[in-house]
User: What shape does this take?
Amino acid sequence: MNVDVLEDERQHHFVLNMGPQHPSTHGVLRVLLKMEGEYVLEAQPVLGYVHRCHERIGEFKPAKSFMPNTARMDYLGALIYNQGYAMLLERAAGIEVPQRAEYIRVITSELNRIQSHLLWYGAYLLDLGAFTPIMYTFDDREHILDILEDVCGSRLTYCYSRVGGVCKDIDDKFIERTRTFIERLRGRFPMYEELVNGNVILQKRMKTVGHYTPEMCARYGVTGPLLRSTGVAYDLRKAEPYSVYPEFDFEVPLEQDGDAWAAFNVRYREIEQSLRIIEQALDKLPEGEVMASKVPKKLKLPQGDYNCSVEAPRGELSYYLVSDGSDIPYRIKVRTPSYSNLSVVPELCKGMLISDVVTSMGGLDLVIPEIDR
Amino acid sequence: MQTLNSYAPEIIRIVIAVVGATVLVFGNALVMGYMERKLAGHFQRRTGPMEVGFHGILQLVIDGIKLMSKQLVIPAKADKPLYMLAPIVSFGPVFLPLLVIPFSDRIQAFDLDVGLLFILAIAAINVLAILVAGWASNNKYSMFGAFRAVAQNVAYEIPMLLSLLAIVFMTNTFSLRGIVEAQNVWFIVLQPVAFLIYLVCMVAETNRAPFDLPEAESELTAGFLTEYGGMGFSLFMMAEYTNMFIVCSIATVFFLGGTSGIPLPYFEYTGIIWFLLKVYLLMFFLVWIRWTYPRTRFDQLMNLCWKYLLPFSLVNLLITAVVVKL
Assistant: This one.
């Protein structure tokens, strides 16, 4: 705890300890708020409650075996984390991935992204005091989890990608169920828009709250929907296309205002774009193998350092790996989006009402294990 | 109960009134608790309580036993006497307003000349209880909740009273029975603006969503209730449910014609059926909006009161006064 903060406690301001057990921090994040009345003078996030040393663990086992750890960093974007790490190793070892595997990775990743956004949508509204929408989004999300469970074997912390492809092929049932789900979710959008997005109370809570600028985002490394809500069209799927994303026709939702309402809309509209990608991927899905044939059992990466970035639900995810030539990496560094996004809080929350702090923090869509990895 | 007046001694009337009020308070808490949970369930595509009894109908009884048997935990640095006193101050007075409400032509304990003022005066004590609870808990979240509750309730009492005063101007009486009897046409038709203002104030007065800022869960964990568990908590909850019943009863008396409805045999007693039906329809409305809307922000809540409700209720009162005078 900051000494200045303690000093202020003795004077006339007081410190509110929001978290680590607080309904709106969604996990074990702790934020110290220096308050005057209902106004926040200073906000200071305190991290480290669920640190599990994932990066350090990566230095002690073969590079391939680190795959399950990636899923446990961001439990809502596990497939995307899998994909990013697999791509990193493939890039390092120079392994070609079959087209079908790339398509399957994209389909499952986008399903995962929708699932993450649906959970955020419900949880965010819960923060704003609307209890009901989360039940509806969980209902939709449940369908995705069921679909992914059939092909990946787990519901949350997937380990589906392998170096050189994916571990299991998808079948006709998967394709059929995914198509049914797309229909279903499209049918639900009008309900969400009428019941939630059009609500005056909700719009008043979010508009003009928490102002981001492109300059501020650049200073803190804020990426993802928050950056796109300021009018910067930076989506790695378009900016540095990876996998088979260039083959699909989709838009990057953009807003100009940079407030909580803009970020809300960007995320909400991304769900529809992900549906479009899945639809096209299912149509174009090629036949063939899902695993590259020549993947060595003991994967020795050539000496050097490697980097790979993908677009996670919350922003840019980067893996950085330094190899000394053996099968065990010398160092793995993961740049997770929530960590950078959280660093904006002290500046963002200055002078806000406590209700707006909750709104802003919910808009960041934080996943705590990803911050404390 | 007034019929009893001629041949029953005063003491028996008092006993009947007290027993009736007590049954109503606890019965209403059971009905409302069950209704709220069941309705919330169905709004959220769940079933709500299903285990205890037919469709979970005994769930609230079990909950009551659980709450009563829980250990009373008092926070170490709390102000102990005040901490214990607050739930009682909140729950104690809720019986009194029930005595002047005309449930039917003959079911009313006392018909006070100043019935409305009596109810509003008693209802204001609840604010004091919340303030004491927030202060005595020695918790920052509780304190926030208490301050918000006081600011909110004091602000909303004014437009509430002004909207009701419009009716009083028309009927020339504060007596609740007098107001019911004066309604040839329900006053919701003659005073729609007053009704809308009252409806909004009613939600704010009972601290229910979307105006549940004193216990805003996602901001203040549970507001002034944070440190209360077991019996203290259940007393606050029962007080809240009874307050809901009282504000809905006032709405029924003032705007929805009280007992009026399709005549039934022995209407001077059976009018209570229509009365309760209207009250619980309003309660359903309260539950409905709670599980539909997000919470407002505190400054927006105060703006709504001071910038819209108060001027509109004043204008409404002025127009009513002019029309009545003509």
Observations:
- Chain B has a mean pLDDT of 84.
- Residues 10-43 of chain B form the longest helix (34 residues).
- Residues 75-325 of chain B form one domain.
